[in-house]
UniProtKB/TrEMBL annotation:
Pfam families (UniProt xref): Sugar_tr
Membrane disposition: Multi-pass membrane protein
InterPro entries, alphabetized: MFS_dom (IPR020846), MFS_STP/MST-like_plant (IPR044778), MFS_sugar_transport-like (IPR005828), MFS_trans_sf (IPR036259), STP/PLT_plant (IPR045262), Sugar/inositol_transpt (IPR003663), Sugar_transporter_CS (IPR005829)
Cited NCBIfam families: SP (TIGR00879)
Protein name as catalogued: Sugar transport protein 8
Gene Ontology molecular function terms on file: monosaccharide transmembrane transporter activity; symporter activity
Location(s) in or outside the cell: Membrane
Alphabetical UniProt keywords: Membrane, Sugar transport, Symport, Transmembrane, Transmembrane helix, Transport
Length: 499
């Protein structure tokens, strides 16, 4: 394949305004990550459980826990994971809002749901009101994860597209770290959990203010027939006046969009199958690396390995910091190295980490008792190496690749499947992990490592490289060049070399 990125670089400057728009949009990821960071701590407090789940609290007090069976309560699990079902359903509504209203109003609506959900959860005195707040927050996640990565991809210069999109995942990891930090300092008797839940309203308000400052994406404006505004927005984002060539490319791409009246029907057509399959399977793989099992239940896992409660929270902070730093590293390399190489290298690193953890726990951690301190420290290091690999590969790529891989006419519709399937399988993992650990014990790490092996094979043979490919050249320069997927596309005589 020719070097498309060099042939399609348009003039641009990274201005302060452009940077602020990137940050405001990416901040929605912080809301997603923050909930992941706090939820285990909140639902693990006696104050919270005794008020909203008295039977679960009694069960915790009365029953003896083993190393591999901790906090396995289905009612609490349903409450935790309700947010992901709400997000999965909301993503399809958000896709329609993105198409008909634009990315900016969709982000604005997400911020309103975030603030409302946080406040309802913080003041709730009854379980229905608490659950209502969690569902509102979940709708916000559905709207944000649908709109923000699309928006970031569309406003970024081609040569920085990967790095800009990854800002969303960077803020997810920052949110997880901040959530762990809040848990470490704010979960005090009797209402510390309310502080943890309510603090999410603060960044939600910042996002709401930011949604009035940012400009709609040029592609969205042109797509909805606002060509003059679209060209003005493009000039604003590029920081230069000479945008005619890029603008003409946008207009051509949007003409293709207008010719497709039913994008969801086109998605299930022959040429829609490869990107739709890859988008959904990437979300499945992202969850079955075991990452959310580790991030949701890090403190439980570390207590399993012999850490005291305070030490397990402190170790969670270390793991969260590794997560954030690894995302910073990816921003630097993603548009230089490409997507496939990073995913393949990460598969090797994650596989070794998971297998090593499984071997140590199988050999040395029984139903009761603790690990030797040096072995427990080794497990923490292995968890960090696993998280590091995920943070510069399958985590952010799960949001980046689906924004690149669809042709422009089905991108918004196709991306809604990315969001919904991600949330659905996050729900599945959050519902089943503790029960699986209780049943599989240390073998659960071999279960996840088996999935990682399959992921590596998939990446090697089925995943095309999308680095540096303009949105309107995805079909001719990616799909029709791929040895497996090219059979799904008709040859229209166009050549990638001459496009």
């Amino acid at each position: 394949m020719p070097n498309l990125q060099e042939n399609n670089v348009f003039k641009s400057k990274i201005t302060n305004y452009m940077l602020s728009c990137w940050i405001f949009a990416a901040l929605t990821g912080l809301m997603f990550g923050y909930d992941t960071g706090i939820i285990a701590g909140v639902t693990g407090t006696d104050d919270f459980l005794s008020k909203f789940f008295p039977d679960s609290y009694k069960k915790r007090v009365d029953e003896l826990e083993t190393n591999y069976c901790r906090d396995d309560d289905k009612f609490v699990g349903h409450f935790k994971s309700s947010i992901y079902l709400a997000a999965a359903v909301a993503s399809f509504v958000a896709a329609k809002a993105c198409s008909s209203l634009g990315r900016r109003p969709t982000l604005m609506m997400a911020s309103v749901f975030f603030v409302s959900g946080s406040l309802f959860g913080a003041v709730a005195q009854t379980y229905p009101l608490l659950l209502f707040g969690r569902i509102l927050y979940g709708i916000g996640i559905g709207f944000a994860t649908q709109a923000a990565p699309l928006f970031l991809t569309e406003i970024a210069p081609l040569e920085h597209r990967g790095a800009v999109n990854i800002l969303f995942q960077l803020f997810v990891t920052i949110g997880i770290f901040v959530g762990n930090l809040v848990n470490y300092g704010a979960l005090i008797h009797p209402s510390g959990w309310r502080t943890s839940v309510g603090l999410a309203a603060v960044p939600g308000l910042v996002i709401l203010v930011g949604s009035f400052i940012i400009t709609e994406s040029p592609l969205s404006l042109v797509e909805r027939g606002k060509e003059t505004e679209g060209k003005g927005a493009l000039r604003k984002y590029r920081g230069v006046e000479e945008v005619d060539a890029e603008y003409e490319q946008l207009v051509t791409a949007c003409e293709q969009v207008r010719r497709v009246k039913h994008p969801y029907l086109k998605l299930v057509g022959r040429s829609g199958i490869p990107p739709l399959f890859i988008t959904i399977i990437i979300q499945v793989f992202q969850q079955y690396t075991g990452i959310n099992a580790i991030m949701f239940y890090t403190s439980v896992l570390l207590q399993t390995m012999g850490f005291q409660s305070d030490m397990s929270l402190l170790s969670s902070l270390v793991i969260g910091l590794v997560n954030v730093c690894s995302n910073f590293m990816l921003i630097y390399v993603v548009d230089r190295v490409g997507r496939r190489k990073l995913l393949l290298v990460a598969c090797v690193q994650m596989f070794i980490s998971q297998v090593a953890i499984g071997v140590i726990l199988t050999s040395h951690l029984l139903e009761t008792g603790t690990l030797d301190k040096s072995l427990a420290a080794a497990v923490v290091v292995l968890v960090c190496t696993f998280v590091m690999a995920f943070a510069w590969s399958w985590g952010p790529m799960g949001w980046l690749i689906p924004t690149e891989i669809f042709p422009i006419e089905t991108r918004t519709a196709g991306y809604s499947f990315a969001v919904s399937s991600n949330m659905l399988f996050t729900y599945v993992i959050s519902q089943t992990f503790l029960s699986m650990m209780c049943s599989f014990k240390s073998l659960i790490f071999f279960f996840f490592s088996g999935w990682i092996l399959v992921m590596g094979i998939f990446t090697a043979f089925l995943l095309p490289e999308t680095k540096g490919v303009p949105v309107d050249l995805m079909g001719v320069c990616v799909w029709r060049q791929h040895p497996v997927w090219k059979r799904f596309f008709e040859d229209d005589g166009k050549s990638c070399e001459t496009t």
